[in-house]
């Protein structure tokens, strides 16, 4: 217990050794008398207590005593009342208002709250008036080792290069302890390794993990699981601990050279393979990863270096041997190559471990293949004169079988290269001949192909291009370069140059070869124009007189003979047309037409156009009128010839008499257009549509002809759309089951009929005429 000698209010608390702290507050002042009788005033300490402490995690049966408050004004008679307020007052901390004893009623956890600030005050019990000013004090929760260390960020993942030196730092792990680091060793941590030895170690104070073995090889083992422990109390007995896992991965370095699995590789290629085709592949194995395992290949030696080439496949890391030049089984049948594989990236730290490359031998066998024939030249060029007779030899191509069998060869010209079949080739000798005369001016070059095929082989063929030039022969006469008219003025002066003519020739012109011009012999004596040969394949035309008149003659024709001077020489006569025109005084042409002198006087061009327009309009009106007249009018009734034909029922059976009830259906006699109750008129458009009369129509299977005919007559009489004139009703049915039998005259021509036609009298007035005819005849016969 702590007691103050100067009186006042005392606070008592149980304190551990070495942890007593004192705090003094002056609350009241008291008077003291000095030696000289002077009254002195001094500050009196009203509240005096120490800082209170309470141990955390107390689990005793009774509340723990935190401390005691006592006031100097408290005489012990119970008139003083102590009040406690602040953090936890009344819930965690309670005070005895008479004695001032403070107790903790709950278990405290320093990690949740390390201290509590409270306020104490002494008041009069009867009036609750403060006797002392309130004052604060602190209750600190004393720490105990009740929290183990924790790794907040575990598990951990780390990487370290393989072949690292001993002591290479991998990573640092850190644990935290919730206990008070300023009190005791509760938060003093020590690290140790529980799993992962002897490969790794950990520094006890810092938690840094380091490599413990040299030359750890990733290719042998890549991952390690390490367990690290952190223990408080400085690692001593009784301390709490926590662990974490660290997964350490060894990263790759280029510490392995490439290595061929075998020293000799055998490959084969057929002689008919083309350049660039793959021969084979080989691969040097490198266990390193990424760019450390990249391998490149090259040819270092062998007799096939110029024939073959090698490239690196970036995806598969294989060396691909390809054909660089064609091979020939008959020339060389085997090749040898020396292939070297080396790393692209070499680590200088491990260069002393040996060369990072390896070599292997590749033997390539050339296989025989049935090759097509080979021509002695890659292309042929020949010449032949145009107009040469059929069968003229143009040239010869030659091909031979390069295989060991040396089979004979057959030649042919593919038709698509010589569509018009100007040439033929000998199937055995390869001689190309013409099949018809050739014309250089039509086609100066012929580009064909000749194919050669082995006889008895696999029908493989080879083709070669043959270019045939048709040599020129002077077989075309020259002619004017242009056929334009020459215009000359009526008032032209004699000797004036009116035109310079030139010529062209479809044949080729030799060097220093010119066209020669002259007036044809039949016009050599003309008095109008003259010609001068300029000796440069042109000629000048001059006027030799004056006084031309369009009224007299407006066009002159001058025949000119042109000679090409070739071998043999060819010449032709061409006519130069010269038209006389009206010109002004300056020689400018005004018009060259002669129509104004021929047209009737007073009739201008505009008048002619108007006349032609009127004629065209009249013709259009006439054509329109004729077209309208030719249109056919619609017939006034529907019973056209076409309709009649469509309603005739063709049959070749007269029926079986009264007992035949299934021979024919009378419904087929009904007009399809009248099935709805009326027949439409085509000459007028009905204004009213009359409804159908109920009943009146016999059923489809009815065989009563009398009822059927009466119904049709009634329809015709009562139909407002029927024609207002008599019309014939066509029936293609003779009836069946009638006592009259057949009405056909085929049987009554040669035989007398003994039928009785008196029943016709009962058919009504419409059949009176028929009854009179037959009845009269019967009466005459009977008489």
From TrEMBL:
Cadherin domain: residues covered: 71-151, 152-260, 261-375, 376-480, 480-598
Molecular functions per Gene Ontology: beta-catenin binding; cadherin binding; calcium ion binding
Domain of life where this protein originates: Eukaryota
Main subcellular location of this protein, as a coarse class: other
Keyword check for Transmembrane: yes
Alphabetical GO biological process terms: adherens junction organization; calcium-dependent cell-cell adhesion via plasma membrane cell adhesion molecules; cell migration; cell morphogenesis; cell-cell adhesion mediated by cadherin; cell-cell junction assembly; homophilic cell adhesion via plasma membrane adhesion molecules; morphogenesis of an epithelium
Parts of the chain that traverse the membrane: 607-628
Keyword field: Calcium, Cell adhesion, Cell junction, Cell membrane, Glycoprotein, Membrane, Metal-binding, Repeat, Transmembrane, Transmembrane helix
Location(s) in or outside the cell: Cell junction, Adherens junction; Cell membrane
GO cellular component, one term: catenin complex
Positions of region (Disordered): 1-23
Pfam families named among the record's database cross-references: CADH_Y-type_LIR (PF01049), Cadherin (PF00028)
Membrane topology category: Single-pass type I membrane protein
Role summary: Cadherins are calcium-dependent cell adhesion proteins.
PANTHER family: CADHERIN-11 (PTHR24027:SF85), CADHERIN-23 (PTHR24027)
Protein name: Cadherin domain-containing protein
């Amino acid at each position: 217990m702590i007691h103050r000698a100067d009186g006042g209010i005392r606070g008592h608390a149980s304190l551990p050794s070495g942890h007593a702290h004192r705090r003094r507050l002056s609350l009241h002042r008291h008077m003291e008398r000095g030696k000289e009788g002077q009254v002195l005033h001094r500050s009196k300490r009203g509240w005096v207590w120490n800082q209170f402490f309470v141990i955390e995690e107390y689990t005793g049966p009774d509340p723990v005593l935190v401390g005691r408050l006592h006031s100097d004004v408290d005489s012990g008679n119970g008139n003083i009342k102590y009040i406690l307020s602040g953090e936890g007052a009344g819930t965690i901390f309670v005070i005895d208002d008479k004695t001032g004893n403070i107790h903790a009623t709950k278990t405290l956890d320093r990690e949740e709250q390390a201290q509590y600030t409270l306020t104490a005050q002494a008041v009069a019990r009867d009036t609750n008036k403060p006797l002392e000013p309130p004052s604060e004090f602190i209750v600190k929760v004393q720490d105990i080792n009740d929290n183990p260390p924790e790794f907040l960020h575990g598990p951990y993942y780390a990487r370290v290069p393989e072949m690292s030196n001993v002591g290479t730092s991998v990573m640092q792990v850190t644990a935290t302890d919730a206990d008070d680091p300023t009190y005791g060793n509760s938060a003093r941590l020590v690290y140790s390794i529980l799993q992962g030895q002897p490969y790794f170690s950990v520094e006890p104070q810092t938690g840094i993990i380091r490599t413990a073995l040299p030359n750890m090889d990733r290719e042998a083992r890549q991952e390690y699981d390490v367990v690290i422990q952190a223990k408080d109390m400085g690692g001593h007995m009784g301390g709490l601990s926590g662990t974490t896992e660290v997964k350490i991965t060894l990263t790759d370095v280029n510490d392995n050279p490439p290595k061929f699995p075998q020293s000799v590789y055998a490959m084969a290629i057929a002689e008919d393979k083309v350049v660039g085709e793959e021969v084979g592949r080989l691969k040097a194995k490198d266990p390193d990863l990424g760019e450390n395992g990249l391998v490149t290949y090259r040819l270092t030696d062998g007799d096939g270096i110029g024939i073959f080439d090698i490239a690196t496949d970036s995806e598969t890391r294989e060396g691909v041997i390809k054909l660089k030049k064609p091979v020939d089984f008959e020339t060389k049948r085997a090749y040898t190559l020396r292939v070297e594989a080396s790393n692209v990236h070499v680590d200088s730290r491990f260069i002393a471990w040996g060369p990072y490359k390896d070599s292997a031998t590749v033997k390539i066998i050339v296989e025989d293949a049935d090759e097509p024939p080979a021509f002695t030249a890659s292309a042929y060029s020949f010449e032949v004169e145009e107009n040469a007779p059929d069968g003229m030899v143009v040239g010869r191509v030659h091909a031979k079988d390069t295989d060991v069998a040396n089979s004979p060869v057959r030649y042919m010209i593919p038709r698509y290269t010589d569509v018009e079949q100007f040439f033929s080739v000998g199937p055995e000798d390869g001689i190309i001949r013409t099949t018809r005369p050739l014309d250089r001016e039509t086609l100066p070059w012929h580009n064909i192909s000749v194919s050669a095929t082995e006889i008895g082989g696999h029908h493989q063929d080879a083709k070669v291009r043959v270019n045939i030039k048709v040599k020129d022969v002077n077989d075309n006469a020259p002619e004017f370069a242009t056929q334009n008219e020459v215009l000359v003025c009526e008032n032209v002066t004699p000797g004036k140059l009116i035109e310079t003519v030139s010529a062209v020739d479809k044949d080729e012109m030799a060097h220093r070869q010119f066209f020669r011009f002259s007036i044809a012999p039949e016009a050599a004596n003309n008095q109008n124009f003259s010609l001068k040969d300029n000796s440069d394949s042109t000629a000048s035309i001059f006027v030799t007189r004056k006084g031309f008149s369009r009224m007299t003659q407006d066009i002159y024709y001058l025949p000119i003979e042109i000679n090409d001077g070739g071998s043999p020489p060819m010449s032709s006569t061409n006519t130069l047309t010269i038209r006389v025109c009206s010109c002004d005084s300056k020689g400018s042409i005004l018009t060259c037409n002669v129509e104004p002198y021929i047209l009737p006087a007073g009739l201008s061009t505009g008048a002619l156009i108007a006349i032609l327009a009127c004629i065209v309009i009249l013709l259009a009106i006439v054509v329109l009128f004729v077209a309208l007249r030719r249109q056919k009018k619609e017939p006034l009734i529907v019973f056209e010839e076409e309709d009649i034909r469509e309603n005739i029922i063709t049959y070749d059976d007269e029926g079986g008499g009264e007992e035949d009830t299934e021979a024919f259906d009378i419904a087929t006699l009904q007009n399809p257009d009248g099935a709805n109750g009326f027949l439409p008129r085509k000459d007028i458009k009905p204004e009213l549509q009359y409804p159908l009369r109920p009943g009146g129509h016999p059923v489809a299977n009815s065989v009563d002809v009398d009822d059927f005919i009466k119904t049709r007559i009634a329809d015709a009489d009562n139909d407002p759309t029927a024609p207002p004139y008599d019309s014939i009703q066509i029936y293609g049915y003779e009836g069946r089951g009638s006592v009259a039998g057949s009405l056909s005259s085929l049987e009554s021509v040669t035989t007398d009929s003994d039928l009785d036609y008196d029943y016709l009298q009962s058919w009504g007035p419409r059949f009176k005429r028929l009854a009179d005819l037959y009845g009269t005849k019967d009466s005459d016969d009977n008489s």
